[in-house]
Amino acid sequence: MSIKLEEICYVYSPGTAYEQHALKNVNLEIPNGQFAGIIGHTGSGKSTLIQHLNGLVKATSGRLYYEGKNIYEEGYDLKKLRSQVGLVFQYPEHQLFEVDVLSDVCFGPKNQGLSPEECKKKAVEALHLVGLSEECYGQSPFELSGGQKRRVAIAGVLAMHPKVLVLDEPTAGLDPKGRDEILDQIESLHKKTGMTVILVSHSMEDIAKYVERIIVMNQGEKMLDGSPKEVFSHYQELEQVGLCAPQVTYIMHDLKKRGFQVSTDVTTVEEAAEEIINSLKRERQ
Amino acid sequence: MIRDITIGQYYPAKSVIHRLDPRAKIVCTLLFLVSLFVQNSLLGYVIATAFLGTVIHLSKVPLKFIVKGLKPILILLLFTVVMNLFLNKGGETLVSFWIFQITENGLRVSVFMAIRLMYLVAGSSIMTFTTTPNALTDGIEKLLYPLNKIKVPVHEVAMMMSIALRFIPILLEETDKIMKAQIARGADLESGNILQRAKAMVPILVPLFVSAFRRANDLAMAMEARCYRGGEGRTKMKPLVYHGRDRVAYVIVLVYLAAVFCVGRFVPFSIWIF
């Protein structure tokens, strides 16, 4: 009961001057209910990778299993897969098209073949989950603010009741407040429904706080894979590929270098503060 | 899926042809196209083939690409060949059944028409394969510059052309992205009758138009912010200058044109076909 990738390779425009190996031999397993983060520099293959997860892009070679079944096998129901693995693209607000918010969110459930009443019920539910106020439901999606549009777009995917939710840079272009709100909502969603959430980002700070596992992509290959603490302990390697660990990692390492007795594997500001206070208390005693 | 369109696409390589001045390439391509239509002899086509072959070889563009570019005209080609084959009368009748007759003349004209069409597309795609769209519009702007005198807004037209060309890949990518996003939401774009399929395009076309307008708006704003105000008094960062190789190219093409023209005029056709 999970998503499992085996030796996935993907080549863009094979046989042309623009041939490009976007993914090289990626092996990955994401168990149900996990909150995972995929991180990587621009062009590291993270967006290509997640488009494999619901069969939008077919790997040049390799196998992908969803709940134990190979999705590249003939006769596999990709449409059903897509309603179970919901994919929210980068800048998802650019895909809105309906006359009002509610019917736009209904688009997904409608494609699943549900009755109009059920669609509406699911849409309202999804809009509740992303925290959009009810007076917006009848408005044109183009009249909303950037953050609201993005919520509508995410609700459009949530309304399909996916078992796995994949979000590609859901906070790109949002201000810090909008960013925190969206991420907090995704986290509470994960807690409430227990769905698998895969969060793609290029910012460590963003995801360090939320995810239980980080997969680092570099030039189409999986470079690191582990808990945030494990991944951030390789902060020097991360720097070499143009990423960096959260600022607190650096602060803790610097403090340790200067003789403070602190542990360096904290990942969030809150943890760091506590660790520093504890260390000061220990020193005083 | 949409990435596979090759017509009018630039093929990056380092070759003599790539380095030629875009004006030289445009004029030479036009002359080559003219050469295909002013003559009507087998020897003439042999020379044209040799010329085109040499240019393709020099350009370092794989032949595969050029052949791929011919695919879109396949139907037009078949139509032309079939029409010419059956409708041209004259000369000896080679095959005849029911009301159809294939004559010697028909066969000749249809074969030549096919060659002309294929070389027409191959010749012009060599130009677009070896010239970046920007260089191409630069060349066109410079070539048409004299028309400014009769109040044709040459610069504005050229600017619109380069913007339009620049938007093609952007909009293709955008379409690809929106299509994927809607498929991910369960949109079905492939099944159903024409009406259903047209309806299924709405979720793609609306966001596409919105994004095209947004991008156009942003671009206009960015141009204004950099004080763009049309062509008057505007200079170029890289002005087009003819080099020795461009002159050589002109001479070669003129010699080729003369050769083809003379062969068509003075060497009788029959010697070469039988």
Order of helices and strands of chain A: EEEHEEHEHHHEHEHEEHHHH
N-to-C terminal Cα separation of chain A, in Å?
Answer: 51 Å
**Largest sheet, strands/sense/barrel of chain B:** 2 strands, antiparallel
The geometry of chain B reads as flat
Q: DSSP helix count of chain B?
A: 12
Low-confidence segments of chain A, given as residue ranges, are none
Q: Report the strand count of chain B.
A: 2
Distance between termini of chain B?
Answer: 47 Å
Instruction: Give the largest interface.
Output: A-B, 27 and 26 residues
Subunit organisation of the chains = heterodimer
- Specify the structural class of chain B: mainly alpha
Strand order of the largest sheet of chain A: 6-7-8-3-9-10
What would you call the structural class of chain A? alpha/beta
Please state the average pLDDT score of chain A. 88
Helix content of chain B: 55-70%
Work out the strand percent of chain B.
Answer: under 5%
Strand percentage of chain A lies at 15-25%
Largest sheet of chain A: 6 strands, mixed
**Secondary-structure element pattern of chain B, one letter each:** HHHHHEEHHHHHHH
GO molecular function (chain A): ATP binding; ATP hydrolysis activity; ATPase-coupled transmembrane transporter activity
Subcellular location (chain A): Cell membrane
Keywords (chain A): ATP-binding, Cell membrane, Membrane, Nucleotide-binding, Translocase, Transport
Subunit structure (chain A): Forms a stable energy-coupling factor (ECF) transporter complex composed of 2 membrane-embedded substrate-binding proteins (S component), 2 ATP-binding proteins (A component) and 2 transmembrane proteins (T component).
